[in-house]
Amino acid sequence: MKKILIILLLVLLFVGAAFTTGQKEAVAAKEKLAPFITVYEGSGSVEIGGKVAKFIQDKLGVEIRFTSESHGVIHSRIKAEAPNFTGDMALNIGFPLMVEAKQKGWSVSYDSPIWRGAGDVWVDKDGFWWNQGNWAFVLVGNKDLLAKKGYTLPESWDELLDAKWKDQIVMPSPLTSGTAYMMVYSFITLYGFNTGKGEEAGWQYLEALNKNVTQYTRGGNVPSDLVGRGEFMLGITSDEMVMPRIRGGYPLVYTVPKEGIGFGFAGAIILKGTKKLYTCQKVIDFIGSTEFCKFWSELAGYVTKDPSVKPALYGGIPRYIPNIDQGWAVANKDRLLKEWKKRVGRAPR
Hints:
D-Maltodextrin-Binding Protein, domain 2; 2 domains; 9-stranded mixed sheet
């Protein structure tokens, strides 16, 4: 009898182990990484988007099929497609889209173990978005053209109003570029709210600056290329392509003016309806890793959630314009864009 009980016990243990193994195998099969995902990428640069896609593929073995557009264009596209998105997730997108996607139910929540404790600047408290890095805009100049004129790169935003810069400044349009919208609310903060003169003083600066702007571009990175190629002397541009262009041999110089620079969040979301949720979650985990933070900061100079990683462009935390309120900027976006169109109203090229 005792022998029979021992045999039965062994059989039960064997069956239990086999069942457990089968469960684990079923879960593993269910959670297998997809061979590819489709991604909206918000840098507006195939060069940047391609390098990010390759890095993720090299590390995770997942092909990233991406469409790269400016923040504003990606936002408009996702808004137009909702709720039936053609992409699985979005990377390097602007904060207004991150917020609206959560509010409208376009994104799905995920509690990533890699992002826990990062702080509300870096991860949404409910897990609907993740901030890949703080990005900013800087002032760039073509050092050959500046030297030819005997000029130096301005060290203050005030200097851009000097008549000598007429038709020599290029910057993006807020009608199509998230970077340019960042410029709008940053200058309103700097010249309006921070001086105690209110929003109108900010608009007065933007209208005065407009007199010296020769062209508004569709994307926030475009001024880096135009100034680097010598088509214009100065540009106000996203910081994303400054390091790559300098490394590529462009005669490009840049500065953070003494008043500081505006900043925004370049974030990630998982889009509702994706059939590749597990793979998207693994990508979210990876972009929160120190390995990715190092890559991202070296590639584009971004400030990341990892304090041990120094941004390549700045070497540390850059000087930001004080009191920028990202929540106010998001809440007032439609109104401010209508006001810009009324006061400036020039179409991007």
